[in-house]
Amino acid sequence: MIHHEGSTQDSDKSEIKAWVAALGAIRLRDISTEVVQDVITLWSSPGKDKRSAKTIRNRVATLRLLWASAKAWGYVTHDVCDNLVLPTWNREEQPSFTVAQVKQIIDAANEPYKTVFWLVAETGIRRGEICGLNVGDVDLNEQAITVQRSRWKSKLKRPKNGKKRFFALSPQLTERLRFYVEDRNPEEPLFLSREGRRLHPDNFIKRQLKPILKKLGLDGAAHAFRHGNASLLDHLAAPMKVRQDRLGHADPRTTMGYTHVIGDDHRKVAEQLGGFFAQVRLNLPKYKNGSGEESSQADEV
User: How far apart are CA 185 and CA 187, in angstroms?
Assistant: First the structure.
């Protein structure tokens, strides 16, 4: 597990703990498909041990990986995951914010979150990546931003796919970000809490976004901005390469400069996306410190 991301390690440990609790002290060679199926049946049946179909499937996927290693290392010779009957998982439709809903959210927010939510809606970047941005990641001249790190808990790490991603920004959003970039140290976090600390991905969702969504009667969280962005790209008939680059579903070209990576299609799409959100009022305070506030009183860690 040391080769997995920290967040993946957490889920791995949870799933392994569940298998250990269910199987007890049975030796590996004595675990059969029937034994595993009995556990799955227990988790699928009404009662205190019942788990969702998604959870059960995730646990079985982890068991498959563990068993493959055990077989490769010679601890077992048989397969226990073949011919298992798993509960049906009907994937629920994910929440997706419309343009109108994004405007409502931005209008209800305070700085720096107005700009944070606009940036998420226009680019579709993940919440940890927002918190990992530094001032120097924004290039006002090129109207571009580089995503090259993500915050997970208290740590900064590489983005999910391990690669930098480059985004063309709309002229409107670039102008708004100017407030957070000019006359600041490039190594500082782009967005700060009122306490002057780098935003925490869990805290700013829990303390800033969730109350707004509750007030507006909207379902979803940060990922709904991402799904909304994908829908907008589809609506704009953006080239598939542009969609993949912006959503991080394909490796970006990291060896070229902005002017090569961000081509005309990227610029056109960014301008169109910016046009959706450009009606948001700036109302930015006079003093710049990354928090969008003149005061430095804390409301967030």
Answer: 5
> What is the greatest pairwise CA distance in the chain?
70
Q: Looking at the structure, tell me whether residues 124 and 260 fall in a common domain.
A: yes
Torsion angles phi and psi, residue 7, rounded to 5: -65, -35
pLDDT tens digits along 74-109: 999 999 998 999 998 776 667 889 989 999 999 999
Our CA angle for 152, 205, 92, nearest 5°, is 90
- Identify the domain containing residue 61 by its residue range: 6-73
For the segment 174-198, what is each residue's pLDDT rounded down to a tens digit?
999 999 999 999 999 999 998 899 9
Question: Could you identify the residue written with the tokens 């969504």?
Answer: 213
* Helix or strand run (H / E) with residue 145: strand 144-147
CA distance linking residue 267 with residue 275, whole number of Å = 12
Q: Would you say 131 and 200 are in contact if contact means Cβ atoms under 8 Å apart?
A: yes
Its pTM stands at 0.68
